[in-house]
Each structure stands twice: as structure tokens, then as C-alpha cells.
Design goal:
alpha/beta; five-stranded mixed β-sheet; 13 helices; 11% strand; flat
Length: 284
């Protein structure tokens, strides 16, 4: 764990003087858990002080307590109890990531960016300490092994999560929502962004997602220089055993008639309702 110099005093600091951590990987949601936290703080106050560090400009940077800060904002509190620590930039990243790893619910994207930020910080620390003549590849592997041990994951699981940071935002969101599995997502992450965009279009058009075997084939085609938009479409149009019969819109003229803000998941219901309305008019 990262060693920090803790200042003995717990202080009341104006919430408006505290900035969030840059590129904070963990989302702060106004959900049921937040509502419960708000009620807890309303009744009992903040039991565990959040942790901040001083910035050169005189303001404070939040290391631990983003959800507590949000709950206090919802309660219109002006101040909050904070513990101030003295810590350098890379140690601050590691501290921030570690302090959030034990949340009740963590999305794959949150783990992905937290692990990447923490690993990058560990690598920079290793370069400064540079006690061996190992190559950069060996040092990277060593840092990842240390990270895996400290967060309680396997080396391979950590590698897979970090690969998710290479996904375009739309596909990463699908991973968070459980529409795309971790292993297929890892294979997709090796595709360049333009081909990920093509795959996303195919997923929307065919109303399905690729399985692991399909994404592995895409990677093989990519390495052979043969992965084209047409190849992606051909793979995605394959019928899977667990696929139910569905409406597939391959004609761009039909797609243009649909409302632009209509979610893919609601297209089928919209088309059926439109057809029912048309039949009613004809029979009218």
C-alpha cells in the first residue's frame, strides 16, 4: 500500500474549495445507493472523514470521498470533515484507486481505467527507483503482477480489464450494461477505432452482439490484413443458436424513417406499432 504523511488534524473545509480527482475513473451516480447515503448523512453526519491533499494553487484535491461530497452537496451542506494528507502525484493516484476498489458495485469500465491509472503510476515509480537492469517489458510485467496481487485479481484478469480502455465509448458502455461480455470485449479492443465503429453499426443493424468465437475470428482476419467492413458484416449476420427471430433492417431507406433518438432496443416495437396503425388505416 502507498505510504502517505497524514496530518493529525481533521478539519472542516468548504466544499466549494475542493476539486475532484483528475480523470477520476469511478462514477458518482444519483441512484438508490446515493439516496441511502444522503439519508445516512442527514441522520448521523459523515462518520468517516474524506481524504484530500493541498494543491499548489491553495485549493484541495479529493482523493477519497467523491460520493460523500456529492451527498453533502445534495443536502446543501457548505462544509465537510476532511483529513488532509501530504502525497505526491503518483502516490495520490494509487491511493485514490485503492480507496475506491471496495465499493459495493464497480463497473467494468471503472475497474479498467482505475487499474490502468494505478499501473501507469506504479511504472513511473519503478522508473524513479530503478533498482534493477530489467527491460521495460519485464518491469511492466512485474508491476502488473504486483497490481494483481494487491487488488486480489489474477494477472490475466487485470490485463483484460486494462484492455477495455482501448474500446470506443459506445462499446465500453455496452460492456458496462452487460450486453457485451468481457472476453469478446477484450478481442474487440485490438481492432482500430474505425473498425470498432463498423462493428458497432453492425451490432445496431443486426440487433445482436458478437460472441467470443466471432471476435477471435475478427482478430485473425485483422492480423492477416483481411478484416474489412464487409467481413465484419458477414460475421455479424451469422445466425447463432440462441438468437430469437427478430426484425433486421438492412435497407438504409427504412432506417432513415425511424426517429433518430429511438433506441435500438425499441425499434422492433416501433415498427410493429407502425404496421398495426397502417393496417388499421387500410381496413378503415
Amino acid at each position: 500500500m502507498t505510504k502517505v504523511k497524514r496530518l493529525a488534524k481533521i478539519r472542516e473545509i468548504l466544499i466549494e474549495d475542493i476539486d475532484g480527482f483528475p480523470n477520476h475513473p469511478y462514477k458518482v451516480r444519483d441512484d438508490e445507493e446515493m439516496a441511502a447515503l444522503v439519508e445516512s448523512i442527514r441522520e448521523n453526519g459523515v462518520m468517516t472523514p474524506a481524504v484530500v491533499r493541498r494543491k499548489k494553487c491553495g485549493r484541495y484535491e479529493l482523493l477519497s470521498g467523491h460520493r460523500r461530497k456529492r451527498a453533502c452537496e445534495l443536502l446543501w451542506k457548505e462544509t465537510l470533515r476532511w483529513e488532509i494528507v501530504e502525497i505526491d502525484d503518483d502516490a495520490a493516484i494509487i491511493f485514490m484507486c485503492d480507496s475506491n476498489l471496495y465499493r459495493t458495485r464497480i463497473l467494468p469500465s471503472e475497474k479498467a481505467f482505475a487499474y490502468k491509472m494505478r499501473l501507469d503510476a506504479m511504472k513511473r515509480q519503478g522508473k524513479r527507483n530503478d533498482l534493477t537492469c530489467a527491460t521495460s517489458v519485464h518491469k511492466s510485467e512485474r508491476s502488473r503482477n504486483i497490481l494483481a496481487k494487491e487488488v486480489g485479481e489474477s494477472h490475466e484478469t487485470v490485463r483484460r480489464y486494462i484492455r477495455l480502455t482501448e474500446l470506443i465509448p459506445e462499446i465500453l458502455k455496452m460492456v458496462d450494461e452487460g450486453q457485451v461480455g468481457l472476453r469478446p470485449a477484450v478481442e474487440i479492443s485490438y481492432l482500430p477505432n474505425d473498425l470498432q465503429e463498423e462493428l458497432l453499426d453492425c451490432m445496431e443493424l443486426e440487433a445482436c452482439t458478437p460472441n467470443h468465437a466471432q471476435t477471435l475470428r475478427m482478430r485473425v482476419l485483422l492480423s492477416d490484413g483481411k478484416l474489412t467492413p464487409e467481413a465484419i458484416a458477414e460475421i455479424m449476420q451469422e445466425e447463432k443458436p440462441n438468437q430469437r427471430e427478430k426484425i433486421i433492417l438492412r435497407d438504409e431507406r427504412v432506417r432513415r424513417l425511424l426517429p433518430k433518438d429511438l433506441p435500438v432496443s425499441k425499434r422492433e416495437a416501433y415498427i410493429i406499432a407502425a404496421l398495426a396503425h397502417y393496417v388499421k388505416i387500410r381496413q378503415g
